[in-house]
Amino acid sequence: MVDDSEESSRANILIVDDTPVNLELLSGLLKDYYQVSVANSGKRALTIINGDKPPELILLDIMMPDMDGFMVCGQIKSSAKTKDIPVIFISALSDVGSIVKSFTVGGVDYITKPFHFAEVHARVKTHLELRRSKAEMQLLLSNTLVGSVKFMIDLLALTHPSLVGQSNRLRRYTKGVVSYMRIPAQEAWVIELATLLLNIGCLMLPKEIVQKTISGEKLTKDEQQLFEQQILAGTELIAHIPRLDKVAELIRNYHMTINTDRLDKNEVIIKTISEFDRLINHGVKPSRAINKLAVEIPDCPQSVFNALLAVSIETTNEEVQVKFSDSL
């Protein structure tokens, strides 16, 4: 008998087949090793898969009425929530076309009927181990990423504290813009991180040059050369961190491209946010700053200006509330 702690630690797999005998046979063979759920149709399978506890692996028959296994797998792989669940097809079809199609729609393996239990068990075990190894690697990369970014921001705070305040303001504006524009999460994440790390190349720059860049003063030829060298060094540092190559490219292009008409959409967004912050920091009212930038950066979408105005109004209201609370 399996106790509750062992039961909860076992992988949850789903068996999908319209034939009751096959469901009973497979579930009977695997229930001593895994938590087993069954579905006798593609529609029922998708209900389980999209529920609160999706399976860690799916054994899927192909020939089923209404919705065949290929259609079910296609829907699984089209959803961000379920696309990483490994699907093993089990079918009486043994022709090359069916096998090739099973991999084309996203399956990870193919077992032909009649099957041997030892083979099914071995393949299920292998793909569960691969999935867990992938998850562990992703967690490791995520922790490495967070730790690396925090280290760089802390280092920047020690060398140039004024830049951290600017980075935090830029990040706030950016979060408002990407939310207002409904930019997809994966793309928004790159833009937000690029904004936060925009000044990482300033780590080794003298304070005088840093202050000039913050205020928008023109650098001398030697200062500009040193600035560009350090920016490139900073982006190379970022590019060596897993998953940050696109962030590094965005920062490099932002700093090194003089003509705004050569910037892509995301670089234009960052350029606009950065210039907006600089103007606001110099006492220019948000509406005037936007009018000025609309002329200077004509490629910037109107939605960016709308978002910046909304965020600046929200920030002003919060500051007023804080001052009012302090006066009580």
UniProtKB/TrEMBL annotation:
One of its GO terms (biological process) is phosphorelay signal transduction system. Keywords: Phosphoprotein. Residues 12-128 form the Response regulatory domain. The keyword Phosphoprotein applies. Pfam families: HD_5, Response_reg. The modification 4-aspartylphosphate is found at residue 61. The keyword Phosphoprotein applies. Gene3D superfamilies: 3.40.50.2300, Hypothetical protein af1432 (1.10.3210.10). InterPro entries: CheY-like_superfamily, Cyclic_di-GMP/3'3'-cGAMP_PDE, Sig_transdc_resp-reg_receiver. PANTHER family: CYCLIC DI-GMP PHOSPHODIESTERASE TM_0186-RELATED, CYCLIC DI-GMP PHOSPHODIESTERASE VC_1348-RELATED. May play the central regulatory role in sporulation. It may be an element of the effector pathway responsible for the activation of sporulation genes in response to nutritional stress. Spo0A may act in concert with spo0H (a sigma factor) to control the expression of some genes that are critical to the sporulation process. This is Stage 0 sporulation protein A homolog. It comes from Candidatus Desulfosporosinus infrequens.
